[in-house]
Amino acid sequence: MKLAYLLPCTCGQKVEVDSTQAGLNVTCRCGRTLEVPTMRHLGELERIGGTEPRATSTWGPRQGYTLMGVLVALLGLGWLGYQISTMPSEIHVVSEDIREDVSALSPAEMAQQYAMLREGLDPTEPPIVTATRAYEAWHRRWTYVSGGVTLLGVAIAAGAWLSMDESKTPRGKRR
Questions:
Q1: pLDDT band at residue 167, thresholds of 50, 70 and 90?
Q2: Measuring CA to CA, which residue among 9, 40, 1 is closest to residue 25?
Q3: CB 113 within 8 A of CB 54
Q4: What digits encode the pLDDT tens for the residues 110-150?
């Protein structure tokens, strides 16, 4: 039932109007044309019939869990983007660094290095390579965790929409 208002005329009669007529002109029984107030001022008129429009919330558990899932997914996506953008690159051997290291060797150290190379390369990795591999493993692990957080957020949001029955949410009377 619509909420109706009584618009007074100078003749003493009142014309019934509703919110759909806000800002329009109506004619009184006496023949005068009356301007219906805008929606902002329509509430100042005398009300008849109907009821006050109730402020009902359309927010329920379903929407709350959806918002939480979306926020978790966005957090995970941001973290995943950061992890991907800071991913370490491959270890590159720079020939200038090798030349500098070799030129810094004494003749005795040079002879020792030559003897080691004749026997074959050292199978152990230098400490920088070991540390770089450990960092890559740590970074990969946290990249997977951030991807998991993103998927968890998507699962929460999707689960809210798939498992919660909207008709059973406590949001007032349903018709």
A1: low
A2: 9
A3: no
A4: 888 888 878 776 667 777 777 888 888 999 999 999 999 99
In terms of Cβ atoms closer than 10 Å to its own Cβ (0-12, 13-18, 19+), residue 4 is: middle
DSSP single-letter state for residue 167: G
Q: What is the mean pLDDT of residues 138-165?
A: 90
* CB crowding 6-42: b at 16 or more within 10 Å, else e: ebebeeeeebebeeebeeeeeebeeeeebebbeeeeb
Task: Bin 31: left if φ > 0, else alpha if -120 < ψ < 50, else beta.
Answer: left
Rounded distance, CA 175 to CA 169, Å?
13
Beta bridge partners of 3: none
Domain ranges of the chain: 4-48, 61-168
Alpha helix ranges (H) inside the chain: 39-42, 61-85, 95-103, 107-119, 127-163
- Evaluate whether 60 touches 130 at the Cβ level (below 8 Å): no
Cα(42)–Cα(120) distance, integer angstroms: 95
